[in-house]
Write a structure and sequence with these properties.
Blueprint lengths: L1 E5 L4 H12 L3 E6 L7 H9 L7 E5 L5 H10 L4 E4 L13 H22 L3 E7 L23 H20 L3 E6 L2 E2 L8 H11 L3 E3 L6 E2 L2 E2 H12 L23 E6 L5 E2 H12 L5 E3 L15 H7 L7 H16 L2
Parallel strand pairs: 1-2, 1-4, 2-3, 4-5, 5-6, 6-11, 7-10, 8-13
Antiparallel strand pairs: 9-12
Helix pairs in contact: 1-7, 3-4, 4-5, 6-8, 8-10
Amino acid sequence: MRILITGAAGFIGSGLAMRLLQRGDAVYGVDNMNDYYSVALKESRLARFAGHPDFRFQKLDISDREAVARLFRENRFDAVMNLAAQAGVRYSLENPHAYVDANLVGFVNLLEGCRHSKVGHFVFASSSSVYGANTKQPFSEHDNVDHPVSLYAATKKANELIAHSYAHLFGLSCTGLRFFTVYGPWGRPDMALFLFTKGILEGKPIQVFNRGQMVRDFTYIDDIIEGVIRVIDHPATPDPAWSGERPDPATSRAPYRIFNIGNSSPVELMHYIRTLENELGRKAVMELLPMQDGDVPATVADVSELNAAVGFKPATPVEIGISRFVKWYKEYYLT
């Protein structure tokens, strides 16, 4: 297949591109290479593809309507994996317009490109953040998610709604993937594991929100990528059992699906930190802080729908995932 990956210089995008190339697909990657975090890290991720005959990269901002339209006019893609987005719950409090530009305007630009060039499957990154104020655990795709607690989450919920309208109006197969706390080698420097590791190694205090009383469904990057690839290979189809009298948010009479991708094995934040301490051989100095605005105390994924649809369930324990991350971190930053 010929697959377009937006956000190809990102954490998930670069890892996904690697796996697709290894199995023989052709990958066209785009990324705006913004400085929300280290551009050098993004360049290092892309450097792994240097000279690969089936990888092509273009610096492109998906909020640029004409640039996206030209991309689809000049190329034909069997599938599109949209990972380009302004990420981060807390940053949305500081720079809301960045989320509107990338996550809403850019999203519609891509859907228009897919619509007019007859792309077979549009897959997009949603987020566990859409569950917002929901407290029933584990989080299920069949639950209502109308109470986001951050602008970032609201844009991801909007993505799901907009994609459904394109599936309904134009028959474009659309699948949304709600990622749960992704971590691992080549990760984003603004994420907890990265910040904790850097702080512990430098002997500086690490910020622990809600005084450590947090639970997360930490999901290892390789599991995320495996789930994404299996979903790409299974385009969404209409659900014949869908009923307008009892509307199911996870499916539709249009070719549209929503899946959670999480480890479905919640871990207490303090256990996560202790595991990291063991790997680094050093104790953390913790600054215990109250809950941050826009954050939630717990995330747990129900992945039964993903498993039923594509035969896969993430299962990498944090002990293994953190060990692999620490090994990569030391090789990348300390050697």
